[in-house]
Amino acid sequence: MLGKSGPDLPANRIRALLNSLDGAFLQIACWLLELSPEEIVPAKFTTGEIARRLGVSRATVVRFCRRLGYEGFPEFRAAWLQEMSGAAPDKEGEATAGFPEAARRVFGLTADSIYATMDVLDPAAFERVVAAMCRASLVIWFGLPGDSAYLALSGEHKMMRAARRSHAVNDVTQLKALSQTVNPGDVLLVFSQSGRWVFVAEAVQPFRSRGCLIVVVTSHAESPLAKVADEVLLTAARDVTLGGEPLGIRAAQLMLIDMLVLELTRRTGSVSLHWETEKMLQARKDAQSAAIESRPV
């Protein structure tokens, strides 16, 4: 996990575009993301060496860098080496000591996804979405069955706790029906890790004609869903493969829901909002420690 933090890091650019890459570009992207700082030798990090190792042309490596938004390889190389050289010592071992391998890996992926999300999430887009949610008479949360539907339900639940009208949907037919009942200024938030579902992109179009704001929460900036959105909230959620199918680590998207709803609550004052102080946190830790110590051996 990279320890260096900052906006627009090269690795996060790659992750944001990963779902839209194929062929040699996808091969280069995956190779770069799997590199560890120890494997990087700056003197050998050249177009020729990368081309030789991956069996692609030097021109392809340059085009890949431009695809990421860099003028060419020198600009990408400088940004990549700076990011890799800023890798912090791995502190996960201390935090996960005593836990088995899978548990340690989940912790690492979760921590990485949260910090990476704050690198790629656009504060201006976040501000516009919160402002729209504050004005909306209804906020609709949509996600297809699975992790995305769970995220939609979480959004609905927290908005209800904030005393705001909200509705979660996980069926496209129901979503289409709702598009006929919304009012101008309402907000539709769509969750999709890949953003690849064209039929969902088509289903949200009627909301625009009704004057609603369409917000897509995804990890892929150039996906079909992102292209039809009024606002894109980019996250860096991570996937593992389970039974041959992707299984998402969605802590970053759950964090984003909390950020949206709690900021809305702070601004509107719809219900009271109190943050846990250091004193309260310490008291809770002391109580937990006392409970653990009092357990029979």
What descriptive keywords fit this protein?
disordered N terminus, 297 residues, single chain, 15 helices, alpha/beta, globular, Arc Repressor Mutant, subunit A, Rossmann fold, 54% helix
Topology:
Elements: H1 10-17, H2 23-34, H3 47-54, H4 58-67, H5 73-85, H6 92-95, H7 101-120, H8 123-135, E1 139-143, H9 147-161, E2 166-169, H10 172-178, E3 187-191, H11 198-203, H12 205-209, E4 213-218, H13 224-228, E5 231-234, E6 238-242, E7 245-249, H14 251-268, H15 278-293
Parallel strand pairs: 1-2, 1-3, 3-4, 4-5
Antiparallel strand pairs: 6-7
Helix pairs in contact: 3-4, 8-14, 9-14
Provide an overview of this structure.
Helix 3 packs across helix 4 and helix 9 packs parallel to helix 14. This protein has 297 residues and is α/β, with parallel strands linked by helices. The chain is globular and about 60 Å long. It has 2 domains: 80 residues, Orthogonal Bundle (Arc Repressor Mutant, subunit A); 150 residues, 3-Layer(aba) Sandwich (Rossmann fold). Helix content is 54%, strand content 11%. It has 15 helices and 7 strands. Strands 2-1-3-4-5 form a 5-stranded parallel beta sheet, with helices on both faces. The chain has a two-stranded antiparallel ribbon with strand order 6-7.
